[in-house]
Automatic annotation (TrEMBL):
Pfam families: Isochorismatase. Belongs to the isochorismatase family. One of its GO terms (molecular function) is nicotinamidase activity. Signal peptide: none annotated. The lineage of its organism: Bacteria, Pseudomonadati, Pseudomonadota, Alphaproteobacteria, Rhodobacterales. Pathway: Cofactor biosynthesis; nicotinate biosynthesis; nicotinate from nicotinamide: step 1/1. Its EC number is 3.5.1.19. Coiled coil: none annotated. Keywords: Hydrolase, Metal-binding, Pyridine nucleotide biosynthesis. InterPro entries: Isochorismatase-like_dom, Isochorismatase-like_sf, Isochorismatase_Nicotinamidase. The keyword Translocase does not apply. This is nicotinamidase.
Amino acid sequence: MRGENEALVVIDLQNDFCPGGALAVQGGDEIIAGINALMAEFSCVVLSQDWHPPGHSSFASSHPGAAPFSQSEAGYGLQTLWPDHCIAGSRGAEFHPGLDLQPAQLILRKGFRRPIDSYSAFYENDRVTGTGLEAWLRARGIEKLTLAGLATDFCVAWSALDAVRLGFAAEVRLDLSRAIDQQGSLDAACAAMTKAGVRLIPQP
């Protein structure tokens, strides 16, 4: 069992991010058994959950003529436009049925504000609006985080980078995460995490 000051944060293991989903990450379902086993090592487990309203600003369908995976200028910078996914209350937004929910003390929903997307479990993409996760972890004396889930190069990486920026020690289980990997995005994310002091397991 890990120390009382350690927590596992499982990022967005939802149906829409797994094979057959609206924004499927290749091999996304392959990591579930390993994550379930890893949960047993931690007394503190957090699950994040993408939870978008219909017509969310990050959906390509909300921008006439825009193609999925193109970019649009948002008030907080460039925003990748995604296929509609993880719509609140839909089957796609549900956790993958193979994921063990019982060990989780917190299920953190993010991305529910229509004008702002949210990759990180700590902040929405405006980098100002917090999710409340930092305060929740601090109240429990958590100092070190292990992160895993979907997708390595977006929500996992952004969460890990915010974790170290906020003063937590952070490691990412690359073997228990899967990436979208668009135009070198996985290599870029790993380089950014390494530079910031995130420990990558195994080393890429």
